[in-house]
């Protein structure tokens, strides 16, 4: 096996040394570069970071959530996945029904005020528990709008019907592998104002050559420390699932990022990560009995020989 994460480590170093210091929507501040690209040859292994532990279970459940066309965090919570909690929680605390303590700017305040952090944690725990227990509440406050799952599987047409972009692109790969139109998009200008988080992964395109399937993702905005390691593994997994269904070998995952940034409150974590020596990348196991992308369950997807350093915690900017 090879060390596939080197492209990621090199980009982190470049941003830290050459990046532009900028303000951002969250008020945290970033150091960023515009127009970055990383390439990962999946025939050499699976690009799950080894310089810190990345919870692959969260990546699996999130991708399966997308592929189900789901946009409600209840499915994620049922699989102990809390990646999207803060965005749903933000909708709840900004609603007229919320009567709890002031949670304005909870992301930044929880970093600076230990007492508030404990109060915020209690409110968030109560919120997620209510999502799990109360179907009506979950329907109202667990839904994130037309995020990835909806755009991938139920893109709404003008006349009211829907397009399943994933099914459509799989059909193209199988029957028109030389097409230059094998694209899935998540960016719908009409839906951006109502989405909890407008899509960062704007579009991805497939390419077939020499019986290998490759995928290029264009990501408008990439949180390099927390988000991008998940994105790399998630789209590499998506590529692997679709290649298997189409009887193709895996080729390259190419990750192109518009604003590739490191939040200023992640600088110490990045330095710690870069001080570590990476291990060989693990390999991916997919249940040989499964082929249709819609049939996979959590137990059908595993990584093998995953050797890694310890977890490095960092706050989420919301």
- Using the alpha-carbon principal axes, give the shape: globular
> Average pLDDT, to the nearest integer?
94
Write the CATH homologous superfamily of the largest domain: Thymidylate synthase/dCMP hydroxymethylase domain
> What is the level 1 CATH name of the largest domain?
Alpha Beta
The helix/strand series, from N terminus to C terminus, equals HEEHHHHHHHEEHEEEHEHEE
CATH topology of the largest domain: Thymidylate Synthase, Chain A
Overall number of structural domains: 2
If helices are DSSP runs of H or I spanning 4 or more residues, what is the number of helices?
11
Largest sheet: 6 strands, mixed
The quaternary organization reads as: single chain
**The CATH architecture of the largest domain:** 2-Layer Sandwich
Strand order of the largest sheet: 1-2-8-7-6-5
Helix content: 25-40%
Radius of gyration: 20 Å
Low-confidence spans: none
Strand residue content:
15-25%
The SS-based structural class is alpha+beta
Pathway: Pyrimidine metabolism; dTTP biosynthesis
Catalytic activity: dUMP + (6R)-5,10-methylene-5,6,7,8-tetrahydrofolate = 7,8-dihydrofolate + dTMP
InterPro entries: Thymidate_synth/dCMP_Mease (IPR045097), Thymidate_synth/dCMP_Mease_dom (IPR023451), Thymidate_synth/dCMP_Mease_sf (IPR036926), Thymidylate_synthase (IPR000398), Thymidylate_synthase_AS (IPR020940)
Pfam family, one: Thymidylat_synt
Short description:
This protein has 318 residues and is of the alpha+beta class. It has 11 helices and 10 strands.
Any overview of this molecule?
The protein is an alpha+beta fold and 318 residues long. The chain has two domains: 6-70 and 149-304, Thymidylate Synthase, Chain A, CATH 3.30.572.10; 85-143, no CATH class. Helices cover 37% and strands 21% of the residues. The protein has eleven helices and ten strands. The protein has a six-stranded mixed β-sheet with strand order 1-2-8-7-6-5. It has a two-stranded antiparallel sheet with strand order 3-4. Strand 7, helix 10 (227-245) and strand 8 (249-263) form a beta-alpha-beta unit. Helix 2 packs across helix 10 (227-245), helix 5 (106-112) crosses helix 6 (114-133) and helix 6 (114-133) crosses helix 7. It is found in: Cytoplasm. (6R)-5,10-methylene-5,6,7,8-tetrahydrofolate binds at residues 223, 317. Belongs to the thymidylate synthase family. Bacterial-type ThyA subfamily. Its main location: cytoplasm. It holds the Pfam family Thymidylat_synt.
């Amino acid at each position: 096996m090879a060390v596939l994460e080197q492209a990621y480590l090199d980009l982190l170093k470049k941003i830290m040394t050459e990046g532009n210091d900028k303000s951002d929507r969250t008020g945290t501040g970033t150091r960023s570069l515009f127009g970055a690209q990383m390439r990962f040859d999946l025939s050499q292994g699976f690009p799950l970071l080894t310089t810190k532990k990345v919870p692959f279970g969260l990546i699996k459940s999130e991708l399966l959530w997308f592929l189900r066309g789901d946009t409600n965090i209840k499915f994620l919570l049922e699989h102990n996945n809390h990646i999207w909690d803060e965005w749903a929680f933000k909708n709840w605390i900004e609603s007229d029904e919320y009567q709890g303590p002031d949670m304005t700017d909870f992301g930044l305040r929880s970093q600076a005020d230990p007492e508030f952090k404990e109060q915020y944690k209690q409110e968030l725990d109560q919120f997620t528990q209510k999502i799990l227990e109360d179907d009506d509440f979950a329907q109202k406050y667990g839904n994130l709008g037309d995020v990835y799952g909806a755009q991938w599987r139920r893109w709404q047409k003008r006349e009211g019907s829907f397009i399943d972009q994933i099914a459509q692109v799989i059909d193209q790969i199988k029957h028109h592998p030389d097409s230059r139109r094998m694209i899935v998009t998540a960016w719908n200008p009409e839906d951006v104002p109502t989405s909890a988080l407008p899509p960062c992964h704007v579009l991805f395109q497939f390419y077939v050559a020499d019986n290998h399937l490759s995928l290029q993702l264009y990501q408008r905005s990439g949180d390099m420390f927390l988000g991008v390691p998940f994105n790399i593994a998630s789209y590499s997994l998506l590529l692997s699932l679709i290649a298997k269904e189409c009887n193709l070998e895996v080729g390259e995952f190419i990750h192109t990022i518009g604003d590739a940034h490191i939040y200023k409150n992640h600088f110490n974590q990045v330095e710690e990560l870069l001080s570590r020596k990476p291990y060989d990348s693990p390999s991916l196991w997919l249940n040989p009995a499964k082929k249709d992308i819609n049939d996979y369950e959590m137990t059908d997807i595993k990584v093998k020989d995953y050797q890694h350093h310890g977890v490095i915690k960092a706050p989420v900017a919301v």
